[in-house]
Design a protein that fits this description.
Elements: E1 5-6, H1 17-27, H2 42-59, E2 66-69, H3 72-86, E3 92-96, H4 101-112, E4 117-120, H5 130-136, E5 141-145, H6 159-168, E6 172-176, H7 188-191, E7 195-199, E8 210-214, H8 240-255, H9 260-276, E9 285-287, E10 298-303, H10 308-317, E11 320-321, H11 337-341, H12 346-349, E12 352-356, H13 363-378
Parallel strand pairs: 1-11, 3-4, 3-5, 5-6, 6-7
Antiparallel strand pairs: 2-8, 7-8, 9-10, 10-12
The protein binds pyridoxal-5'-phosphate.
Residues 71-73, 76, 100, 102, 147, 151, 176, 178-179, 199, 210, 326-328 line the site of pyridoxal-5'-phosphate.
Length: 379
């Protein structure tokens, strides 16, 4: 296969090589069920404990506040439904209109069961402000869920300001940190969140594994009923190899924060090249989201009178992998709810693409992406 330029790391990432090596023994020799009391399972049980300790340490939580799940979608579903089903009087849920569908559709499901749900509109930078939350919060609000960083435009939300408002009114606060964790600092105590969702494949871990942080004492129902795994909260034999790899990948990704500067310089090189190619001069595109406070390496661009879908396919033919928005919705060609919410002007909406770089991309690749985009657009 010819070498591709992979610039869709917000969709999924390459498995970190240390994470890959760490998981191998648990797929081959160390296959004992961690719940068994015999000596063959002792190492496996210990590996699970170490993984949990490591993950807890990375986000400033306690190990018994980390619950393994099958990924971001499950963590989000559990957080929203598990809290809602535990509510007695405070049944209202507040979320934002730029959340991932794992949150939005969980809320829609609860709404169909007569739970009141409010969606806060993001401002035109893709930010949910504390004033906006304050307008919605009432004494019957049981849960507020606002993502830490948006998956389509990268805008980072002021979570610690939002948790203050939620907690003042006695509501719980959940954040979907799936895109943020491993890319920016995540500290559950500093943000003061009650629940936080994460998914390994967004930070160099395997697909199909994630976790939900549940602050000790939070009123939430179990997600899966069955065995005693995960403190009876999420039953099912653990995917030990994936869990071990997730912990290694998360720890490794913390060492990569230093690469933030590299990501910023890659973005700059790409934007400067588009500008040199006269795209900026002609006002042919806009950069979406909170440019000054967003995920490093994630660029959402909307091109005037261009089909983002066509651009994606032309770039694919040139060996460049980008996306038009959220990967999980690539079957739909309509404009995403995030792009609509932040009021991207009509002529630009359909021409939206997301480029998500990681530290393995090079300046040459960033320039090649810009040149290829310019070539397609000029053609
Ligand atoms: N939440 C956000 C913000 C995401 O970006 C994604 C995946 O794109 C998910 C949740 C779902 O995660 P997973 O693919 O692990 O189910």
């Amino acid at each position: 296969m010819n070498k591709i330029i992979y610039a869709d790391n917000a969709a999924t990432t390459k498995l970190n090589s240390k994470a890959y090596n760490a998981m191998l023994p648990y797929l081959t020799e160390q296959y004992g069920n961690p719940s068994q009391p015999y000596s063959f399972s002792r190492n496996v049980k210990h590996a699970l404990k170490e993984a949990k300790d490591c993950i807890a340490n990375c986000i400033n939580a306690s190990p018994n506040e980390i619950f393994f799940t099958s990924g971001g979608t499950e963590s989000d579903n559990w957080a929203i439904k598990g809290c809602a089903f535990a509510f007695k009087d405070r049944k209202k849920i507040i979320t934002s209109d730029i959340e991932h569908h794992a949150i939005i559709r969980s809320c829609e499901f609860l709404h169909s069961l007569n739970y009141p749900v409010n969606y806060i509109k993001a401002n035109n930078k893709g930010v949910i402000t504390s004033d906006a939350l304050a307008n919605y919060i009432t004494s019957d609000t049981g849960l507020v869920s606002v993502m830490l960083a948006n998956n389509e435009i990268g805008s980072i939300q002021p979570i610690s300001e939002l948790t203050k408002i939620a907690h003042k009114s006695g509501s719980l606060f959940h954040t979907d940190a799936v895109q943020a964790i491993g890319h920016i600092n995540v500290d559950v105590k500093q943000m003061d969140v009650d629940l936080l969702s994460a998914s390994a494949h967004k930070f160099g871990g395997p697909r199909g594994i994630g976790f939900l942080f549940i602050r000790k004492g939070t009123n939430i129902l179990p997600y899966m009923n069955g065995g005693s795994q995960e403190q009876y909260m999420r039953a099912g034999t653990e995917n030990v190899a994936a869990i071990v790899a997730m912990a290694v990948a998360l720890k490794e990704s913390l060492n990569q924060y230093a690469n933030t500067f590299k990501l910023i310089s890659l973005e700059k090189a790409l934007i400067n090249r588009l500008s040199e190619n006269k795209l900026v001069y002609n006002k042919d595109y806009i950069i979406n989201g909170a440019v000054e406070n967003k995920l490093p390496g994630l660029l959402s661009l909307s091109f005037k009178n261009i089909e983002g879908e066509t651009l994606l396919h032309r770039l694919d033919l040139m060996g460049i992998m980008i996306s038009t928005g959220a990967a999980c919705d690539s079957v739909k060609t309509e404009v995403s709810h995030v792009i609509k919410s932040i009021d991207v002007p009509a002529q630009y909406r359909n021409g939206t693409i997301r480029i998500s770089l990681n530290y393995e991309n090079t300046i040459d690749e960033a320039i090649k992406i810009a040149d290829s985009i310019s070539k397609v657009i000029k053609a």
